[in-house]
Here is the input.
Amino acid sequence: MRCVSAEHRIEEIIKKSRFIGVITPGLTEQAALQVIAQLHIEHPHASHIAFAYRVQSADGIRYRFHDAGEPSGTAGKPIYQHLEGKNLINVVLAVIRYFGGVKLGAGGLTRAYGNAAGTVIESAAIIDYIPLHTLHLTLDYQQLQAFEYYLKKYAGIIVQQEFTAQVQLTVELPQANVRNLLASAF
Here is the structure.
């Protein structure tokens, strides 16, 4: 599986209609919906904001696509097919349309939305998807420095830390490195 490292946008004009393709990371379904809500705020006068997303959850891959008022199957589904075809995960892909006065027909709409989706994917920074694992740990103060060394060695980061009688940590690291970290640090 693959994902995007950062938001990317493209713009195309097709028969006087303006299509803006936006691809951005969306780690959860809630985050994906927030991205879509933000696009509606950024483009209040857009005719349509069609989208699709695919996110990894505890239940497996969750996805959704929406035609945004275009004829059924002409906008959201072609966008989603690009996400699925490229095996992209934790991604939101939207195509914003400003109607230019010329009707494209069902086939033209499908091609326009699909082409915008494909173009933005091709020009975005696509990286390999690395599943992360979250650990909650309690350490003594004298263990912290060594633990931080091994955490960095295994590509982990400290997400949250609390210093009380002991150090409470929440860390994230690639799932494949969890066993190595625990074996090395303890």
Summary: The radius of gyration is 21 Å. Residues 132-185 form a domain with the Alpha-Beta Plaits fold (CATH 3.30.70).
